[in-house]
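In this supplementary section we document a worked example of the pipeline. Step one takes a protein sequence of length 100 as its only input; no multiple sequence alignment statistics are reported here. Step two produces a three-dimensional model, which step three serialises into structure tokens for compact storage. The input and output of this example are shown verbatim.
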Amino acid sequence: QQQQQQQQPQQPQQTQPDLTADAGLHGLAPLEGGAQPAQLLGYRLELKWSSGRWYRGTICEYNSGKRKHKVVYDDGEVRWYYLPEMVFRFVKEDEEWVKC
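The serialised model returned by step three reads:
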């Protein structure tokens, strides 16, 4: 019996935001609409990793000095990102999500 190991990508893909998501809020829409970065706290999003897979998380903090958001993924992993460089999309809240 072979055990399949799921490989986690090492780095998220860093290119232009995906503006084609159909979850209601798209790419940087809240930022382009005049929202300040700190106003994104609590937003749910999916980030596209270099493997092409999307991973869900919650924006839990914002560091204004570094201009980065802290994303806590649903599996517990924590990463800091400068969101304008990332491929991501906002998603609707679901029942199984990380609350900050």
